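#struct-queue
[09:14] JT: dropping the first one here, sequence first, then the structure tokens:
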Amino acid sequence: MHSNGHITVFLSLILLCIVSLMCGLLESARTAGTRWYLKIAADSAMDSVFSRYHREAWDKYRIFLLEDKSGDDLEQKWLEYIAPYMEHSGWYRVDIEGANVLHRDLITSAGGKYMKQEILDYMKYGIFDHIPDEAGAVTMLADLKEAAVVKDLSRSYGEHTKEAVRLEYVIEEINSSLEKQKYIWIEANTCLSNYDGQGFIRKAVELEIETDRIPALVKSYGNIADELYAQLQLTKSKRTEAMDQLSDPIQITLNSDTDWYDSYVRQDGERRKQVEALAGESIDIKNKIERSKDRALEVAQIIDDWESSSDDDDDGPDLSELWGSVRDIWCEIHISLLSYTNGVKDPQKEKILEKVESLVRNGLMSLVLPEGTQVSKGQLDLNSFPSLIYSEEQGEIDGLIDRILFEEYCGRFLTSFLSEEDKAVKYELEYLIGGLNSDEKNFSQAITDVLAIREGLNLVHILTDQEKRKEAEALAGVITGVTGTAPLTGLVAFFVMSIWAMGEAIMDVRRLLQGEKVAFIKSKDNWRISLQGLLDSGSSGSFEGEGSDNNGVSYTGYLKLLLFLSHSTRQYYRLMDVIQMNLRTTDTEFRMTHCVYGAEIQGKGRGQHFFFGVLEPVYPIEVRTEKAY
């Protein structure tokens, strides 16, 4: 009996150990299962929270936005969605006591990174026509940069040409004044030959007044020449820095054309010596005029005294000798004429070209708007826009394909001048470009930028078209009156080409606003305006253009090109401005800054032990879950 009882106790102890081990294994497995169950429940609840995306934002713009107006909606909704999982946890019993958001990624955060990702996630499923590959995008970007550089340089050199023409006008005034002085001197000398003292005095005073003009003209000449030289040096530096953005043929052509400016300045250096010498000569002339006048007055007094005191038989004074003494002084006056004459022989045509530039600067809208078209008067309230938090330092540099996809997205979902939708604010694409507070301002900025693109591309074409270059040189020769090659003719020829490119650009933009297409790269076949047509349009102040180019680019296409050239991060924020503006028409409290792109939530709770009831029946448990669109 004693032996049998010992075995029973031994087996009981062994069984207890086995049961304890099994219960421990079961509890461990159940605890691990609880954690996995809680993780699955947390992730599912998070999916449910993010399924509450803004339906109108998806319908209109195909982006996911989760509103969190109060700032604690995420925690509350997450607890609400996870509660059913906890109620039916069964074997994996756990109670969630609370939750807190570890971080939220707002759609407006990270320099527009999340907005960009939303767009790319949608656009990768799109079907596109005529979208360039990366190589094509690189070529297009190079063309646009080259056009921008050529346009900027042409504008700068155009200003220098106008300064040079101003210089020529001063030379014309100086020459005119010198010729007038010469004519007055001859008339005064004739008066002396006729013993006309009073007439001589009048002419001497007249010559003195005309001589007084010379110092002011010389000073004006010097100021213009100094300004021209200083500004030309700045433009030369800018040209040197920009050369790496130009193709070899354009570099060669541009260098050849702009070298005329250096030649003109060098030539003007020699002419300036003669001009500045006139100031000193005018002082000497004035002194001799004063001496001549004084002697003439003395002679007149001698004659008057003789007439009042002489007898009738007196032969009188020798008038030839008396007035000859005045002539001796008068003949000491030497009036120099410049060996350099002014080079503007047809100022009317030159003024017409300047008028074209002035029309673009002061009245572009009237030049390019189709007849009967009204510009929207929509106003934008910028005070609550997401772009207020944008800074230039934010954001990453996008790849070319990403930028192209963004442009395509904007072209699909935003309205512009040619859109037919009736909205309070219509020019959404233009707003992305201008960022201003009215449709009218944004439209004006957009067409100015499109004009600049077309002007640069048009000038690139002219620079490489020998026929058009010869036409421009011929017109420059007519304006300057110089046959053959001369520095001033070279300056004016480049100015003519610049204004010609501008005139063609005006017609291009006008056609775009009529809904037609304009070729990106021009050729002889699709060039619209002749030089004579340019002069006629400049005189009348109106440009007419119609007809589409085969395989051309539409107005929307050119707006997308402007976006392609702009800072992408700025565009993401302005796009958010537009989305917010439109969604607020149905929900005035909507803000993009309330919208969540992604979040991480930490839940805390208590799990319950099923075994080992003599121990603490509960234990702390936590779970983390994250989600992003």
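[09:21] JT: and here's the second one, same format:
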Amino acid sequence: MGGFQGFDPARVRELAGHLDSVAGSIVPMHRRLSQILQSAAEEMAPQEASTSPELQPLVDHPGVPVATGGIPISRVYGIPTGYLPGPRTQGEALAGGPLPGSVDPFLRRTAVDIRTRCDRLEQVRKAAPASVELDAAALLAADPVNLNAVPKPNAGEQAIAAWWAGLTPAEREQYLYLKPEVLVTLKGLPADVLRRATQLAYFKVVPYKISSHENSGGGKLSIGLVELGQGFALRTEQMNDGTYRVTMISNAQEGLKLDGLLGGALKFEIGDTWSFKSKAEADRLQKDLAEAFRLHTAQYLSPAGWLWAKTRLPEVLERIGQPKIKMKTVNAEANATVGIGGVTPGIKFSSNLSTITSTMDPLRPTVTLSREFTVEPSLARGKVLQIEGSKVLGGTIQVVRDKNNPDPNTNITTVRLIQTVEGKLGGSFGGKLGGKGGGVSGSYRESGNSTHVVTVNVPIGAAPEEQTAARKWLKTPMTSMLSRPAVPSDPPDPHGDLFSKLAHTRGQVSAVSYKGNASELKLGGRFTIEGIPIGLEGTVAGKHDRITGQQYLGAPDPVTGKRTLVPVN
């Protein structure tokens, strides 16, 4: 990461904290002074308690509303703070007028502004290479730019060149170090800027989770060979950029099951994701979602519940707001198990197709089509008490398109490949009571898992040749992604395809490892009506994982051209 010379952001933050402390002490001091002056005015009536113009609003007409207007505030640390609002009552006149009490809101706003600028300065420092010496004073004095205000690739070379020329050096550094992967797709920037942005893009990776927690539940009804089910899940993820994502998932399934040996199902899933800058905001959303569910249920139970929901539900839904990411998934699944003595080998295949609409960047909304294929061989030993192990191999290909551009031949912005390898080891305890006509069953499963995820993210520019190369690569068979991810570590063949060259020169690659555990409780019952077996089953589950290792693919070696994985700072 970059460095500062003669500048310590931590000390600047400490100064902001002192400003807050001083502001807090000023309020009670001036409140007491106001009381003393009002008492003096009453005792000296009808004489004037003071002829000072600063005190006139208070001592002339105590208790009567006044309007004293705003007072101008100068620049502090290069920060424009504007005007303080004028007071509305004489009790507020002292704190809002030209007396020192007016510095209370000024100091607080200044402290917030300093912290905001320090946050942006730290972001730039972490994103910049270690060899870069940053001008901290200039970055602190510059207003934090809107990182989403980057021109679109089709804005035109002249418009893009004019936008860049109108930025100050400190503003350019913010875009260069924090949005290099976007700059490399723009035509019209100076050649040296594009070269630097290309190199800096190696230090950027697609956002990934560093920890997650999920609670889920559902029910299943079986009639003969047919199974019908519904479920839900609530997932909270902490991302590597410090944000938190909360996802609410609703799913349904239809399938067939042949005496536990063969099975298959078609699943439908809808997921909504909200993003927050702090855990407190994420926790608040989960409470609002739970309250919305209770209100939605209560309105169907009684007139009082309907009235309660009508009063409260609109307010709760307004707080919840619109999700940043919406996902719809169709999943086809097939599985088979064979009992051989005390050992039960099995295998499961799964394929899904997802449509993901994102407004994480409100100025550049995207639609992603995701294709995923997984295979999971497993082995279980025992009957009542089982030891289970499995390994999941998954490959995902995603194509990200500009939602504002309806032309499929020109709207690809990113091609992404994800490979997942997950090992599971655990045990379960369960049993059944009853005969052929009916009975009850239950089981509890606990397992640990170790997961490794490799993500290759290739930004695609607006040039026709890049769009064509991306469409051609997307025809790659899904099954080939299970054996080896296409990590662009070796230099591409000079005569090879353009997509391989793009992946090597601008591909963003992360390799992340996780460890976690999962638990699942199932309770069910079965009975027979006129010879038709009917079953009911309920499931409650939970799982969480945490990051144990993270790497990104560094820039090519200047001699060999080879890229190697290095730890993320």
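[09:30] RK: nice, looked through the second one.
[09:31] RK: The CA atoms of residues 160 and 188 lie 5 Å apart.
[09:31] JT: good to know. The first helix runs from residue 9 to 44.
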